[in-house]
Known about the structure:
Elements (H helix, E strand, L loop, with lengths): L7 H11 L3 H15 L5 E2 L4 H10 L4 H17 L11 H9 L2 E3 L10 E6 L10 H18 L1 H6 L1 E6 L5 H4 L4 H11 L4 E2 L2 H7 L16 H14 L1 H7 L3 E2 L18 E5 L1
Parallel strand pairs: 3-4, 4-7, 5-7
Antiparallel strand pairs: 1-6, 2-3
Helix pairs in contact: 2-3, 5-11
Amino acid sequence: MPVRPLPPALAEKARLELNETPKVLEESIRHLKQWISTQPHLRVRTDDQWLAAFLRGCKFRLDQTKIKLDLYFSFRSTAPYLYSVKYYEPKFMDIINTGATVILPKTKNPADPRVILYRIGKIDLKKYTIIDILSVLVLQEQICLMEDDNFVVAGTVNVVDLDGARLGHYTQTSIKQLRNLIAANQIIVHTKNLESFYESVPKEILPEEYGGTGDSIQDCIDHWKNKMRDYSSFFEDDLKYGSDESKRPGKSEPAVINDPFRRLELD
């Protein structure tokens, strides 16, 4: 199946900022498929749309795209806690219901980045760990890689709401786990005051709980519950992908890319 055409505003952004042309896209996907076929340790999803997402995320730098694909799928064996919650487990939907992570379904402008809210204080430490929450987010982001052109082309603005957070929320993970989480999500942190925050995240898309006029948190939760159900067969198929590190040629472990997305912190 060919790659879905981008809307005009995102197509122009991809051309100017990601070095994308139809020819480059086609040839790069063909090159990646050939490379994947020579990697004995990798079991990689090869849908054109999926590969296009990784190419766009790396601005069509093929060497970097290969490293990122390798890292993404090898984490399933080298850092399995990132995938600790499976889509078929009851707590999968329970975690969605907490609203601990909310991917806002709208953008103000056609070429704006996707906004993700991390509501740390909503995690019930008696039921879930932060790793549980983020492993569900990994599955949500798989959907975004397949169907969300804003997420793929324009990137993300990640907003951390620390209201209600306690010491336990910060002491559940090891340094190694945090390092892998950062590597998987390619995120850095910087602080903004509320007015600057609204400049980066328009009120029109924010839930009323954050002073905005967009969909409520509950509406966003319901949207994602339905979306996750629609992707159940996709997640079932996805279970077969990963890596066999015993078959990795040469190096003993995958490389790590330092290519940050933006992240805002909301106090």
